[in-house]
Amino acid sequence: MNKLLVMLFTAMLFSCNNHAQVSPKQQDVINAEPIEVAMQNGKAKAYFASGCFWCVEAIYESVKGVDESISGYAGGHTKNPTYESSNTGRTGHAEAVEILYDPKVVSFETLVDVYFSSQNPTQINGQGGDKGSQYRSIIFYQNAEQKTIISNKIQALEKQLGEKVAAEVYPFQKFWIAEDYHQDYERLNPDNPYIQNVSVPRLNRFKRKMPGALKANH
């Protein structure tokens, strides 16, 4: 009897964690036409999900040509997601970042390189100890050119690793900005244990991989 209960609990947990990928509403998001965000004052925007947005925000802000990185939610089928609702795994959203960048300084292709160089590309539904569909890796494209860039990068990386890349590829639809206290979290909370033990080491690993992409003060 106990064995049966464990099996049922495991099945329920697996179903919950993977709800975002299998629900019909989520499939509509995956099948949608991408929305292209217009450039403003010569600056473009790009969108990535790669585990905890505290970590990802800090990584992209260390990159030359990136003006700002904003934490939020994307990739799901519900409106107005919050930190609490996204953590249920039922909204379809993942913690994501909006990158404001100068395409004359840094290309979308380089931002994709930053993306894969700053994570474990084969981990499914999370990064490190942050696990669940809200922490899954998603890379968003806004047009056919970006989709091709992403596809080529994934194929090359899978060939190099000999493993399947876990990142999902989604057409960009909408980015929902996270609560104020999440913004610039690593910079404003340097003594937080998670920042010290997870976020900063992850940032430093990225810096060692792509030193040529870093701003002068990083």
TrEMBL record:
Coiled coil: none annotated. Pfam families: PMSR. The keyword Signal applies. Keywords: Oxidoreductase, Signal. It catalyses: [thioredoxin]-disulfide + L-methionine + H2O = L-methionine (S)-S-oxide + [thioredoxin]-dithiol; L-methionyl-[protein] + [thioredoxin]-disulfide + H2O = L-methionyl-(S)-S-oxide-[protein] + [thioredoxin]-dithiol. Gene3D superfamilies: Peptide methionine sulphoxide reductase MsrA (3.30.1060.10). The keyword Protein biosynthesis does not apply. SUPFAM superfamilies: Peptide methionine sulfoxide reductase (SSF55068). It comes from the Bacteria. GO terms for molecular function: L-methionine:thioredoxin-disulfide S-oxidoreductase activity; peptide-methionine (S)-S-oxide reductase activity. Residues 1-20 form the signal peptide. Has an important function as a repair enzyme for proteins that have been inactivated by oxidation. Catalyzes the reversible oxidation-reduction of methionine sulfoxide in proteins to methionine. Belongs to the MsrA Met sulfoxide reductase family. NCBIfam families: msrA. This is Peptide methionine sulfoxide reductase MsrA. It comes from Bizionia algoritergicola. The gene is msrA.
